[in-house]
């Protein structure tokens, strides 16, 4: 045990005050009228006061309260095991602190983020004299400090951040803040040694997401928020609602819907089917509970719960599933899932197969249809058409009525009149995805659909035949452009970086066209490029969507890519459940007029469109239901914001210990012990007040008359 402010123990001298008050305190003498005083000889009045202690219990309470207060002001702390070794010479250090939802987890009554604040203070206190320290958090809105010789600034900034409500409901992997931390070190390089002290939970999205170095001579030293790397505290069991979904149940009633949710019981170790826990799940509509069901969840496993509900009214209803009657769950915030519920809410997609095959791996739309079926969230109505059937639909009085997105998968260019009708439908708001293959001819597409294409087609290229690439047999994908509206909020590699392409289409550069590249190959050639046309959107994939030219459909990121791309192409996005976002993920609002977004708290926020005919609404930090008002002549848009279920996964992963070259200093954990003392002082003062009131009442009753 040690004291951070030992001089404040001088406050113990104040213990003399209550003692002196008790010794000097006396009641004023009272004069009592007595009839026989005339027979008593007059003399001088003598008042005697015996100096002895009275109300010793009251005195003891006051002395104890003052002593504990002085001790609390001295801020006693106890030192635990060393959490990390810091460089033993003066250096530049950046504290990288995890600010994601998982840091709300309580272990033995202490939040991980509070432990991270204590760990950061331990690192700062252990830094050698002459060091400088900066601060970065994985929360984009968290504090950020440049390097400073005043080491107390980082400690104060973390304390204010934690006291201000951190962590929020967002999901930010710890490695997301690593480039910012490295940039701060590079910006102020002066030949000194450098290090990044990463403080978080030892999970796959926390310390487990970090590399050992952030550049030459810049080690990344992991610091667990609680415990130490060689003695981590056990992860407490907690419950979460991982996902929800719904679908029409017309077999029961034309207005009936079937709502389901997946409840997960997080605990270390394998699933134990015999170890069951009863959990209550409530379904809410408009903030009111309409149904409740119990589900038995195995240890470290999951269970599905299902409700059937008949909707009343025409408009979408704000709905939610929530875990209820959870007493003291260690990780709050992941037990509710919000969504909009409506009788009809489906996205109509037409897949046009230009090269059907009996072999699934080579059928043009097999992988795409499979990915759409596996995509979570919004319900999709998928139709398949042959090219001649598409042209027939385009020649109808109302071409492709009710269709939201059309996919041309290795389809020959439509006839001129059908191409004109398709262009007009895109201008009205239809989404169009074009994927290439053997049947796509550049000249025909450029002549008939050149107005629609993000960039005109040049020629098909077999990888390895162009100058400078004779040594390559395949072309890999480069990291995705996460600033693209269709990919915002996804991970850095999307699970696509291992994709290999043997053949692709080159495009004609055109700076006059407002096109955006979402994916590109390592050679720089565009792989997925998009463009707005009228009220609709067009996407062009420069390789095939089957196995003929690429293994892209086999990659784990193919399903989320298809899900995001289809949602992006649905420019109208009228559906009630058409958009379910993660906390902090921006919402693209189509239209060239300002809109008003009503948040879950009822706050009205403005969304102003940019020059591309859309607004980017970024204030989605609060889970719940959002409504977008776009004017009297347009129906409102609705979307829901949910926490990322990945933040509920608190499974510990193996994190390698810090690798330090040269001298090192052990930074021991300091656990504050003054907080219980303050509570005890408040309790003693309350008892003192009760005792004083009781003694005063007793004396008043004991006085005569």
UniProtKB/TrEMBL annotation:
The chain crosses the membrane at residues 57-74, 677-695. Keywords: Membrane, Transmembrane, Transmembrane helix. SUPFAM superfamilies: Class I glutamine amidotransferase-like (SSF52317), vWA-like (SSF53300). Pfam families: BatA. Residues 1-76 form the Aerotolerance regulator N-terminal domain. InterPro entries: Aerotolerance_reg_N (IPR024163), Class_I_gatase-like (IPR029062), Double_TM_dom (IPR011933), vWFA_dom_sf (IPR036465). This is BatA domain-containing protein.
């Amino acid at each position: 045990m040690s004291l951070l402010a030992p001089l404040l123990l001088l406050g113990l001298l104040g213990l003399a005050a209550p003692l002196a008050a008790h010794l000097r305190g006396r009641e004023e003498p009272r004069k009592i009228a007595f009839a026989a005083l005339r027979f008593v000889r007059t003399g001088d009045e003598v008042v005697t006061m015996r100096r002895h202690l009275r109300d010793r219990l009251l005195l003891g309470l006051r002395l104890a309260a003052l002593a504990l207060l002085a001790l609390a002001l001295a801020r006693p702390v106890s030192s635990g095991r060393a959490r990390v070794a810091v460089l033993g010479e003066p250096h530049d250090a950046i504290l990288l602190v995890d600010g994601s939802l998982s840091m709300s987890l309580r272990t033995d009554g202490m939040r991980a983020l509070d432990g991270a604040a204590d760990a950061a203070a331990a690192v700062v206190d252990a830094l050698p004299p002459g060091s400088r320290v900066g601060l970065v958090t994985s929360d984009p809105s968290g504090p950020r400090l440049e390097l400073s010789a005043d080491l107390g600034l980082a400690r104060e900034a973390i304390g204010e951040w934690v006291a201000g409500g951190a962590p929020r409901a967002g999901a930010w992997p710890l490695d997301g803040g690593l480039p910012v931390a490295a940039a701060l070190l590079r910006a102020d390089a002066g030949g000194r040694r450098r290090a990044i002290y990463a403080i978080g939970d030892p999970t796959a999205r926390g310390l487990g997401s970090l590399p050992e170095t952030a550049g030459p001579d810049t080690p990344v030293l992991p610091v667990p928020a609680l415990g130490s790397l060689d003695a981590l505290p056990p992860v407490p069991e907690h419950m979460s609602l991982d996902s929800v979904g719904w679908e029409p149940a017309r077999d029961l009633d034309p207005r009936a819907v079937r709502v389901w949710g997946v409840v997960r019981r997080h605990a270390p170790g394998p699933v134990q089917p015999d170890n069951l826990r009863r959990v209550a799940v409530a379904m809410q509509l408009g903030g009111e509970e309409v149904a409740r069901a119990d589900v038995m969840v195995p240890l470290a496993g999951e269970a599905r719960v299902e409700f059937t509900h008949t909707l009343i009214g025409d408009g979408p209803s704000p709905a939610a599933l929530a875990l209820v009657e959870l007493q003291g769950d260690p990780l709050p915030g992941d037990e509710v899932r919000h969504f909009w519920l409506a009788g009809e809410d489906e996205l109509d997609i037409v897949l046009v197969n230009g090269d059907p095959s009996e072999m699934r791996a080579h059928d043009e739309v097999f992988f795409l249809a499979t990915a759409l079926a596996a995509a979570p969230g919004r319900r999709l109505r998928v139709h398949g058409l042959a090219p001649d059937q598409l042209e027939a639909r385009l020649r109808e009085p109302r071409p492709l009525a009710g269709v939201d997105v059309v996919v041309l998968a290795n389809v020959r260019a439509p006839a001129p009149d059908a191409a004109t009708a398709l262009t007009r439908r895109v201008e009205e708001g239809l989404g169009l995805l074009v994927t290439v293959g053997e049947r796509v001819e550049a000249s025909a597409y450029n002549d008939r659909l050149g107005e629609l294409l993000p960039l005109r087609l040049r020629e098909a290229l077999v990888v390895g035949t162009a100058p400078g690439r004779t040594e390559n047999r395949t072309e890999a994908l480069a990291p995705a452009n996460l600033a693209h509206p269709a990919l915002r909020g996804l991970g850095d590699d999307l699970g696509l970086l291992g994709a290999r392409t043997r053949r692709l289409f080159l495009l004609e550069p055109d700076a006059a066209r407002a096109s955006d590249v979402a994916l590109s190959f390592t050679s720089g050639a565009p792989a997925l490029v998009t463009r707005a046309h009228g009220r609709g959107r067009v996407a062009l994939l420069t390789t095939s969507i089957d196995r003929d030219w690429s293994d892209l459909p086999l990659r784990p990121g193919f399903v989320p890519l298809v899900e995001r791309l289809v949602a992006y192409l649905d420019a109208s996005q009228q559906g009630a459940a058409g958009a379910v976002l993660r906390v902090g993920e921006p919402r693209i609002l189509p239209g060239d007029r300002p809109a008003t977004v009503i948040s879950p708290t009822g706050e009205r926020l403005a969304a102003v469109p940019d020059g591309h005919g859309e607004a980017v609404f970024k204030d989605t930090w609060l889970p719940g239901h959002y409504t977008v008002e776009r004017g009297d002549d347009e129906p409102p848009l609705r979307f829901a914001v949910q926490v990322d279920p990945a933040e509920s996964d608190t499974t510990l992963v193996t994190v390698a210990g810090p690798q330090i070259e040269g001298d090192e200093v052990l930074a021991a954990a300091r656990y504050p012990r003054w907080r219980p003392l303050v509570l005890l002082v408040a309790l003693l003062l309350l008892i003192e007040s009760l005792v004083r009131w009781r003694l005063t009442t007793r004396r008043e009753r004991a006085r005569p008359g």
